[in-house]
Design brief:
By secondary structure, this protein is an all-alpha fold. It has 3 domains: about 1-105, no CATH class; about 115-210, no CATH class; about 210-285. Helix content is about 70%, strand content about 0%. The protein is built from 10 helices and 2 strands, in the order H-H-H-H-H-H-H-H-H-E-E-H. A two-stranded antiparallel sheet has the order 1-2. A hairpin with a 5-residue loop joins strand 1 and strand 2. The longest helix is centred in the N-terminal third of the chain and has 37 residues, at about 65-105. The radius of gyration is 33 Å and the shape is globular. It starts with a helix and ends with a helix.
Length: about 325
């Protein structure tokens, strides 16, 4: 991470290029949607009053009947962005992984890096990642529905319902994080070994079983680092918001934006660092085989059971059992 910061910069570049495209498309789509909403003079007059009840009434009248059009545009935009992310993430991941594999010295554990990028397999892995993300959002919506069912009845319990929602949502996104990390690890075997989508997933499972300890250690330390960066960014953002009454609104917003971008950059850099750690673990030689059982005869040297007899031993040389018995032959 410190010797080759260009790899982390490349990771940030392709991620932020997609993020900028998403922000631009969402902003333009929102402006286009607002431009299609009809606003009468009476509704405009209610909006200018700046009274909460009157403004809410005006917004309700303006947005009436436009929900289906908004949902329709969001679905089209979501599908388009998902396809774009699948392509861009495959290209970016292939480039960063190829740089990481070239940086670490090759061992017998991995063959030489293929010149082909195997984009089709990376497309498949990214498609699975999109499916996992969609499933996570559906799970969060299901947790919200479960909260509504719990709080219904003659004696609603909003506290228990909110706790249930938090627990279920946390479990859903923890499962998403595990599966997303696993699919990211599988992309390593696509670029390094030329595996297909399912072959890379199987290789990632074998790798996790063989090197469970180092992989768990890497995930733990980088996860704690990510969590520490999040808490630090939250504290700094809270300090900036604390000066919101003193500083101009534009300056406060700029400070929050700067802290957010800095946190995202650190998160992306930690992400490529974790991937580099996985590459390093994969490059390490496998653990040596256990030593063969040895057997010691009397007080003599130890002999390996099942070891082949060395060709350097002369078969015609006398051993102790071939010497004459001193008790029978007398002294020399």
């Amino acid at each position: 991470m410190l010797r080759r910061p260009s790899i982390g910069a490349g990771e940030i570049a392709w991620r932020w290029s997609f993020g900028a495209a998403v922000a631009a498309l969402l902003g333009l789509s929102l402006l286009e949607y607002l431009d299609t909403l009809p606003v009468t003079r009476a509704e405009l007059l209610l909006l200018k009053t700046r009274q909460t009840a009157l403004v809410a009434r005006a917004l309700q009248q303006v947005l009436a009947g436009s929900g289906f059009r908004l949902v329709e545009s969001l679905i089209v935009l979501g599908v388009t962005l998902a396809v774009g992310w699948i392509v861009l993430a495959a290209l970016g991941r292939a480039a960063t992984l190829k740089a990481l594999l070239a940086y670490f010295p090759a061992k017998d554990r991995l063959p030489s890096i293929s010149d082909r990028l195997h984009l089709r397999s990376l497309f498949g892995l990214n498609l699975f990642r999109v499916g996992v993300t969609v499933a996570a959002f559906i799970g969060s919506f299901a947790a919200l529905l479960a909260e509504g069912f719990v709080s219904q009845g003659a004696s609603p319990s909003p506290g228990i319902a909110f706790l249930l929602f938090v627990v279920l949502t946390t479990l859903v996104w923890l499962a998403w994080a595990v599966l997303n990390g696993f699919l990211t690890l599988a992309s390593l075997f696509v670029v390094a070994d030329g595996q297909d989508t399912f072959g890379a997933a199987a290789a990632a499972v074998d790798f996790c079983c063989e090197r469970a300890g180092p992989i768990f250690a890497v995930g733990t330390w980088f996860g704690l680092s990510h969590l520490a960066a999040f808490f630090l960014a939250s504290i700094v953002a809270g300090v900036v918001l604390g000066f919101a009454g003193i500083l101009p609104p534009g300056l406060s917003l700029l400070g929050i934006l700067f802290v957010t971008l800095l946190y995202l950059a650190v998160a992306d850099y930690l992400s490529i660092g974790r991937l580099a750690a996985y590459v390093a673990i994969l490059r390490w030689p496998a653990a040596p085989a256990p030593a063969q059982d040895t057997e010691r005869i009397g007080g003599g040297p130890s002999f390996t059971i099942g070891a082949p007899v060395s060709a350097a031993v002369d078969a015609t040389e006398l051993i102790l059992s071939d010497l004459p018995n001193p008790a029978q032959t007398g002294p020399y």
